[in-house]
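So, can you check this record?

>
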Amino acid sequence: MSMMKNLKAKLLRIYAKTRFEIERIITIGRHMFSASQVNTELNKTYLELGQLTAEALENQEVDWTNHHAQNLVVNIQDLKKKLEVIEKEVQEAKFAPLGSFFKK
């Protein structure tokens, strides 16, 4: 009987330790999930702020003499122009006759 009590005590310790570890992992997972959600919201907020700032700079509503910021605005304008060209090419490709895709 002593062997059974010893085995039972060991099993209870293993169960308690396992339960503690599972609860700890769940708690950490919950916190990581919450942090991920907050980080996503923070990134969206930064993005929105950046877009509003870029628009204000482009429209000269804000006079910001920071050289790096001015370079970023120029880069944004260039990228927007590139997107317009790509969009135009996509639209042309959508409605182009089939034969125009093959070389003669």
User: Anything to note?
Assistant: The chain has a mean pLDDT of 89. The first helix runs from residue 2 to 58. The chain is about 85% helix and 0% strand. The two ends are 93 Å apart (CA to CA).
